[in-house]
């Protein structure tokens, strides 16, 4: 990161209104995915405790990563964020001056949805598995976005005992050790799905995770 970009980034993460937005995004995650949020806390807290050089961008957010798209016409082509945690949520908040009835829609390919996405609205999607993007804006319109997320590699690093898979495989019996961490075929998939909450389970899941 260049000196200029680092200066701008640090200025943004210290901005009161940016901090409020990112805190809100984290609260949305905690509210609608309590078990998954709790898993983030249990995984990322040891990581930050182990390495004192690491710091969260915001004290009021669980997400370790943030991207600011300063536009002035922030529109994404269709993509998946393949390095993000597959079951993880990506929180997107946009702003700007545009007619959200005519442009700037959020589209989700696998769900076959095109959703109006007005300025100051937020969306939560599993961006690593659902292809998504935005529809174009008019030439004179503006749009900006703030996105928070977590790389899947962080969770693998902690799960593997703060080691890479490559390092594990170099050990004697490394393949068996890695297989033990990874679990049986389909096991991770089932465990990941279990971290999602249905609407009628939210109250009980909150009580189980946070005591209230």
Hey, roughly how much beta strand do the residues contain? 15-25%
Structural class: alpha+beta
Instruction: Please work out how many helical segments DSSP would assign.
Output: 8
Spell out the CATH superfamily. Answer: Jelly Rolls
Proper CATH architecture? Sandwich
Portion of residues within helices:
40-55%
| Poorly predicted runs of 5 or more residues | none
Adjacency order of strands in the biggest sheet: 1-7-2-5
Describe the protein in words:
This protein has a four-stranded antiparallel β-sheet with strand order 1-7-2-5, covered by helices on one side. Strands 4-3-6 form a three-stranded antiparallel β-sheet, with no helix packed on it. A hairpin with a 4-residue loop joins strand 3 (about 105-110) and strand 4. It is about 40% helix and about 15% strand. The chain is built from eight helices and seven strands. Helix 2 crosses helix 3 (about 35-50) and helix 3 crosses helix 4 (about 150-160). About 20% of the residues are buried. The chain has a single domain (about 5-210), classed as Jelly Rolls (Sandwich), CATH 2.60.120. The model has no long low-confidence stretch (mean pLDDT about 95). The chain has helices at about 5-15, 15-30, 35-50, 150-160, 165-170, 175-180, 185-195, 200-210, and strands at about 65-70, 90-95, 105-110, 115, 120-125, 130-135, 140-150. It is an alpha+beta fold and about 210 residues long.
């Amino acid at each position: 990161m260049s000196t200029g970009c680092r200066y701008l980034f640090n200025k943004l993460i210290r901005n009161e209104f940016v901090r409020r937005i990112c805190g809100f995004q984290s609260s949305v995650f905690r509210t609608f995915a309590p078990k998954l949020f709790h898993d983030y806390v249990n995984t990322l807290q040891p990581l930050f405790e182990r390495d004192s050089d690491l710091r969260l961008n915001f004290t009021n957010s669980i997400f370790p990563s943030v991207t600011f798209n300063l536009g002035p016409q922030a529109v994404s082509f269709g993509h998946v964020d393949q390095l993000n945690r597959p079951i993880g949520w990506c929180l997107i908040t946009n702003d700007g001056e545009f007619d959200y009835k005519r442009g700037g829609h959020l589209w989700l390919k696998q769900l076959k949805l095109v959703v109006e996405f007005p300025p100051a609205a937020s969306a939560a999607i599993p961006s690593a598995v659902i292809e998504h993007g935005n529809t174009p804006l008019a030439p004179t319109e503006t749009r900006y976005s703030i996105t928070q997320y977590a790389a899947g590699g962080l969770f693998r690093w902690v799960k593997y005992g703060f080691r890479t898979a490559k390092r594990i495989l170099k050990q004697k019996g490394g393949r068996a050790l890695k297989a033990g961490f990874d679990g049986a075929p389909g096991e991770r998939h089932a465990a990941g799905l279990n971290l999602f909450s249905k609407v009628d389970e939210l109250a009980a899941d909150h009580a189980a995770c946070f005591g209230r």
